[in-house]
Task: structure prediction
Amino acid sequence: MPTYEYECKACGHRFEASHSMSAAPLKTCPECRKDKVVRLIGSGSGLIFKGSGFYATDYRKGGAPPCPSAGSKPSCSGCPGTQH
Ligand SMILES: [Zn+2]
Result:
């Protein structure tokens, strides 16, 4: 009896199930009871991304941006670096 790996797309629950090849693959998640279970082809591929937000904060590492009106508006007020 082969063992298959499943993952629920609704709650992320992963589990293994053994059934014959002729049996229909599972559909219902044992955790959340939703029919969002898919059978994984192979395991440990590392192709499944969980969540996002890897890039959202990278561009801020340069510190605060310069005053957008520095150099063009001599009367710029409220910008710490452009006091006259
Ligand atoms: Zn689930």
